[in-house]
Specification:
Largest sheet of chain A: 3 strands, antiparallel
Order of helices and strands of chain B: HHHEEEEHEH
Largest sheet of chain B: 5 strands, antiparallel
Distance between the termini of chain A: 19 Å
Mean pLDDT of chain B: 86
Helix content of chain A: 10-25%
Oligomer: heterodimer
Number of domains of chain A: 1
Structural class of chain B: alpha+beta
Strand order of the largest sheet of chain B: 1-2-3-4-5
Number of strands of chain A: 4
Order of helices and strands of chain A: HEEEE
Strand content of chain A: 25-35%
Strand order of the largest sheet of chain A: 2-1-3
Shape of chain A: globular
Number of domains of chain B: 2
Chain lengths: ~80, ~180
Amino acid sequence: MKPGHGDVLLAEGDPEVSEDEERLIAEFRRQLDLGMWAAVPTSEGTRREATMVRDFADVPRDAERVVFFPPAAGG
Amino acid sequence: MSFFLATSLVVLAALAVVGFGPSLAERVRRRIPRRKIQERIPAYDPGRERRAEARARELLRSVVSADEYAMYLELGFIAVEGAEGDGGYGYLLYPHRPIVAFDAPTGELLNEYCVGFPDRSEPEVSQRLPDADDVLAKWMSLRAGERELISVANMHVPGRQVDPGQAGRDLIRLREWRARRVAAA
């Protein structure tokens, strides 16, 4: 998520392919270094949920995507 | 004669430098960073904001349930159940406004949680997410870690920023909207 843009595709690939995985890990770390939060949307039937992840290893292998967004701050 | 004129010009130039130099230098100094910031902050473009909101809505649609997405489009907010305790409470998620907690059985407003998602990765450009992204950020944060989000937010009694009358009417609209969805199904 980005102000003035909506969502922006940062990287995509198959984590089973080592080159893709390296690129995905690098982008994941870069976003966390920028201070972003990372969430993985999940679903069980019609119910939708989300899980926060702080390490690439925590991302489920079958996850379709990771959404990065700015961290919450008291308003 | 020309020597006298040249000397006068030199003296006048020196006096001008002494007299106006500092204020001129200050004005130049002020203008340079302002120009740099203006170059980084794109001019407000309603088309760009509209496209950003359209993209944000598409992301929202792909993450939340169909009911929640329809709720956002038709009512302008998303209502979610609280996950802690007996679940007898919920939250109204408005774009760029505090999260409003309410008692589900009675509709009584409980608290306002002031929280934002400012993008500080580029401090000199706009930090404001599109409306649908702001709602989605609240939704994901609540779903993934309600307690963590609430602990970050500033808590206030109802009515500090969101008009309690409006929130009450929104809860009535929500109840009617849900009843229509059930009837139509």
